[in-house]
Design brief:
Layout lengths: L3 E4 L5 H12 L3 E6 L2 H8 L11 E5 L5 H15 L4 E4 L15 H29 L2 E6 L12 H21 L4 E8 L5 H4 L19 H15 L3 E4 L1 H12 L1 H5 L2 H15 L1
Parallel strand pairs: 1-2, 1-4, 2-3, 4-5, 5-6, 6-7
Helix pairs in contact: 1-7, 3-4, 4-5
Length: 271
């Protein structure tokens, strides 16, 4: 059955791939991104997904609560409901904790990754509660399970996304609203491409391979939509390692240099 989706970060990476998959499945999609020109340019090449049918293009700065509220109002007025919100927009900038802290970089991670997720989640609750159903899918990261040296701000922000999302899921279930946190390992996106020559991001490449955007989309439209779990980790094997590392941080710290060197080797191969 066709459903109504709001998808953020829709101009690239996971968000773009997800929107196209949903539209191909005849779902109604509000594709949102701060870069509205990019959105328009992308969909000008897909006449089968012309705006006005099952597609709505929306400029959205996830850091601004009022623009979230305007987006929700527009979608409800046009399609009368919101079945699924996918909070995918995110940002990553590498940093050592010994670097001089730039306030703008702190704000960037927490305003987009954390506040954007919170504002989006809160903005759809009233509509979903009145429907008696809904599903909120928030993208965290494997870094939300175990902190990554070299990506301390990103890790901290994604820990917050995961914690908030799990708490929200436990609270909102009574209203028929599911909240799923998805924690993928490194995914081959433009955001990852920017990290290929950054030593601080070497641990991101320590897995035996990167995920494709299609693998993440497969998980969203497949088991996540069917089972509506509180959390899904991709791949599951890396999730086990990450959770174990989080339980035993002192022991894990002894192996950071090993995995950093391994990540650097794989990082060079990816360039």
């Amino acid at each position: 059955m066709a459903q109504t989706y709001i998808v953020t970060g829709a101009a690239s990476g996971i968000g773009l791939a997800l929107c196209q998959r949903l539209l191909a499945g005849n779902h109604r999609v509000c594709a949102c991104d701060i870069n509205f020109d990019a959105l328009q340019a992308i969909y000008s090449h897909y006449p089968q997904f012309a705006e006005g049918g099952n597609l709505m293009l929306q400029q959205l700065d996830v850091r601004q609560l009022d623009t979230w509220q305007q987006t929700v109002v527009r979608v409800v007025e046009h399609w009368q409901r919101i079945d699924v919100l996918c909070n995918i927009a995110g940002v990553l900038k590498e940093n050592w904790v010994t670097d001089i802290v730039v306030p703008d970089e702190v704000d960037l991670h927490f305003d987009i990754n954390v506040k954007g997720t919170i504002f989006g989640t809160q903005s759809v609750i009233e509509t979903m509660r009145s429907q008696g159903s809904g599903h909120i899918i928030n993208v965290a990261s494997l870094a939300a399970l175990s902190p990554v040296p070299g990506l301390s701000l990103y890790s901290a922000s994604k820990f917050a996304v995961r914690s908030y999302s799990l708490a929200a899921g436990m609270e909102l279930g009574q209203y028929g609203i599911a909240v799923t946190t998805i924690c993928p390992d490194a995914v081959q996106t433009p955001m990852l491409d920017k990290q290929k020559d950054k030593e601080q991001a070497a641990l991101t490449f320590s897995g035996h391979r990167t995920l494709s955007v299609d693998e993440v989309v497969d998980a969203i439209v497949g088991p996540i939509m069917r089972k509506r779990p509180l959390e899904m980790v991709l791949p599951a094997s890396r999730g086990v390692v990450a959770k174990a590392a989080n339980i035993f941080p002192q022991t894990t710290g002894n192996y950071v240099d090993f995995f950093h060197k391994l990540g650097k080797k794989r990082q060079k191969k990816s360039q």
